[in-house]
Amino acid sequence: MEFRHEYKFIISISQSLLLKERLSGLMKKDINSGKKGSYEIRSIYFDDIHNSCFKHNEAGTDPRAKYRIRSYGVSDEKIVLEKKIKQNGMTKKRQQQLTKDQYEILKRCDDKGILKRASDKELFFHDQPPLVQELLSLKQMRRMQPKVIVTYERTPFVEEAGNVRVTFDDNIASSAEFDLFFSHRLPKRPVMPVGQTLMEVKFDEFLPEYIKKTLEIGRLSQTTFSKYYLCRRYSL
């Protein structure tokens, strides 16, 4: 995937409700939204022994990258490893769907290069996809380990022209209970003030004018808000 534009805005609940109503008549709901129109996202973010990812985010280092394991809802049916790269104000992601064995291997807090399945069969480094190999290497060289869980409820709208996604993230919270990642009992700590929503606007080369005009509801302040950074601040 090529680099994409990504703009973020912190808006009020009333602004969020207004924009969702406007967009519902212009854009499609994401195919994964279901009848509810939203879904929960959970991500385990990794960092090294020096907290380099956190510090690079804080300093605005360019370029910079973050590694995360993501699931959708309280389910282990689809687990994805992602590397998100930010450069010159734009972002792109590399993705690799994980098996449950690969997930367990990456979540482990050790840096062994030869790993074992539950069946006791050895699973070797060179058998893994490139992105999994990359994170395993970082676990060995830089002690890259799970640091925080970021969770939130996402309402997404999509448009094929420009490959546009407008998303609204509510109930952003953090957790450090990695063993409960797929559990309804995951304890969460809210990190956003009550009454605020994060809106993200992502697109490739252009944002259709009709979407741009629909999003104009007075002065919206663009922010460099990072869900990962804010959740890490509460966990350090």
Structural class: alpha+beta
Strand residue percentage? 35-45%
Strand arrangement within the widest β-sheet reads 1-6-5-4-3-9-10-12
CATH class equals Alpha Beta
The main pleated sheet reads as: 8 strands, antiparallel, barrel
Number of discrete domains: 1
Radius of gyration: 18 Å
Q: What helical percentage do the residues reach? A: 10-25%
Report the order of strands and helices: EHEEHEEEHEEHEEEEHEH
In CATH terms, what is the fold-level topology?
A: mRNA Triphosphatase Cet1, Chain A
Number of helices: 6
CATH architecture: Alpha-Beta Barrel
What does the average pLDDT come to?
89
By DSSP, the count of extended strands is: 13
- Kindly report the name of the CATH homologous superfamily: VTC, catalytic tunnel domain
Shape: globular
Distance between the termini: 33 Å
As residue ranges, the low-confidence spans are 117-122
Can you walk through the features of this model?
The chain has a single domain, classed as Alpha-Beta Barrel (mRNA Triphosphatase Cet1, Chain A). The strands form 2 sheets. It has an 8-stranded antiparallel β-barrel with strand order 1-6-5-4-3-9-10-12, surrounded by 5 helices. It has a two-stranded antiparallel ribbon with strand order 7-8. The longest helix has 12 residues, at 13-24. By secondary structure, the chain is α+β, with helices and mostly antiparallel strands. Strand 5 and strand 6 (90-98) form a beta hairpin. The chain is built from 6 helices and 13 strands.
